[in-house]
Amino acid sequence: MIHARSGPVDPEPDTSVRPPLVRELFLVAGLFLVYKLGRLAANGHVEEAFRNAGHVWDLERVLHLPDEGAVQGLLLHGHTLVQAANTYYATVHFPATLVFLVWLYLRRPRHYVWSRRVLAVLTGAALALHLLFPLAPPRMLPAADLVDTGKVYGPSVYGDTPADDSLANQFAAMPSLHFGWALAVAVGLVVATRSRWRLLWLLHPLVTLLVIVGTANHYWLDAIVVTALLSVAYAALRPPARTHRPRQVPAGQAAPPATIPAPGAYASGTGTQVAGTGAYGAGARTTRARLSGIRTRRTPELPARAPRAYARSGVRR
């Protein structure tokens, strides 16, 4: 049997499992519309949102979580840094998630279906919590004593009157979909790719976490709760199995040496199929190994051994 090295590489897109494009466009647009309408439906709960904010702030102190002001203090060292954080918060959230879904749809259709379901489940659970638990962000809480960096340094994505903001629900801090989507994007890319550097995708949710806390738009607990929701979604929706393909031998490079079977293992003239690029690799090329020309050399028969000595017959030398 021929031994060839094989290992996991990036498979070609499996177009047979790719959903219809038009249907996916309507589906994603519908999910986005439900997301926006759900957030706007939670507007107006001002007193309840501030009361819940006080409870969250006190709970974080009981749990000895880091003070959000420590992260903000790092951003306030320079205008450029804090403006970069505000820009990241305002512009990266939706585009990064959209580019992630488009790339998966084109290159990893199986992972696209899985990630789209995970994001839908996560977003639905988050919207339900927004309705049940309106929460004012720490930048609005007097006890937190934090700066509204978007309003002071810009750019800001929120209006001046939170109760009547028609563009976004400022009382939907718990859980943080900014961090939840960023974490889902990173995990999806780590699972779908094979690069040795793929763990660097986790920098996206890490930077997002520092930004949402440093700009005083979210509490630490907002990120903790959305991580728990995402973990439940991953437990319910298993990722697709990894696809393995044999490594292709580059042109001009000698193939690995083969292990030739011992003579007599196959009958003369009988062909056997062996893998050209791997013993059991999917899509491996097969060749016909003909052994009819291999002749086994017959070992000459040895003469019978002479008797060790004549028996004593009484004959004298």
Note the main attributes of this structure.
317 residues, mainly alpha, two-stranded antiparallel ribbon, 10 helices, 2 strands, 3% strand, globular, disordered N terminus
What this model shows, in words?
It is built from 10 helices and 2 strands; from the N terminus they run H-H-H-H-H-H-H-H-H-H-E-E. It is mostly helical. The N terminus is likely disordered.
Overall shape: it is globular
**What number is the mean pLDDT?**
77
How much of the sequence lies in strands comes to under 5%
Instruction: Please trace the helix and strand order, writing H or E for each element.
Output: HHHHHHHHHHEE
Unreliable residue runs: 1-9, 265-296
Specify the number of helices: 10
Decide which structural class fits the backbone: mainly alpha
Rg, please?
A: 34 Å
Q: Please estimate the helix content.
A: 40-55%
Q: Widest sheet: strand order?
A: 1-2
